[in-house]
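Dear support,

I submitted the protein below through the web form. The confirmation email said the job was done, but the results page showed an empty box. After a refresh the structure appeared. I'm attaching both so you can tell me whether what I see now is the final result or a partial one.
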Amino acid sequence: MKISYIKATLWVAFFFLITILSFIGFNRKEANYDFKNLADKKNTAMQIQTQSEFESTLKNIGSSTNVVKPDVLNSNDTNRLLLSIQLLDTMKQYLYAGVLAERLAKIQNNDSRYLQAARFYLMELYKHDESSNELMLTKKSKENLEKCLTLNPNNLDAKVDLAVCVYNLNKMQTPEDQMDLMKPALLLREVIAVDSNHLDGLYYLGKLAVESNQFEKAIVRFKKLVSLQPQNREFYLELSQIYAMMGNKEESKLWENKAQSIK
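What the results page shows now:
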C-alpha cells in the first residue's frame, strides 16, 4: 500500500484545525473558556473510548472470518502466517492481516514485516470514511513503524509513513512532547537528504510548506515532483492552487491549463 489514502486526511486535518482556531478567535470576547482543559478532557475521553473498542475488536478478531482459523493467532509457522496474511489482504480484512503481520514481524525480527503491519492498520482505517478506532489504529501503525526503523533506520518509506502518522496523531491529541509538532517535518527532511527524488517525501514536505504559508518552498517541492512525474496531473493542480493562494492568477491558470492538457 502506498500512502495515497492519507494525503486527503493530512489536508482535511489541517482545515479542521483552522476551523477550531477560527471558532476560538470569533468567540473570545463572548466567553472565557479554558480551551486547554477542554482539549485535555476530549483527548482523554477519546483515548479511553477508542482503546476499549479497539481491545474488544482485537479480542474477537479471530472470529471475523471463517476462512482463516483463529488458532493462527498463536501460530509460529511463518509459512502459514504468510499465507493467511495474503488471503486476508485479498479479502480486505486488513485489521486481521495487520495483527498476523505484526506477529510474523516479531518472529522474523524483520523491518519490512513491521512496515507491512503498519500499513495494514492504516488500510483498515482508510477503507472506511469514519472509524471509531481511528486513534488506536494510527497508534498501532506508529508503533510498528518505530519498530521498523529501530531495525532499519534507513527505511525511507517507513520514515514517510511515520511522519504522516505523527502529524495525524498531533491533530487527534495534544502531544505531551511539543517536539512532536516538529517531528513530521524533521523526518521528511531526513528522507529527502538521503533521496532527493523521494516522491512521497517531496509531496508531504510540499504540503507542510503550504500549511505554514511557505509558498515558495512548496513551489520548489511540487515543481520537482512535476519534473519527476510529468504525467501526474495532481502535481500541476497543486501548483495551480498554491499560486492561487498567493494571488498570482496568471501562474495559477497556467498550471491549471497544463494539468488539463495531460491525457
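Response: this is the final, complete result; the empty box was a page-load delay. Residues 4-152 form one domain.
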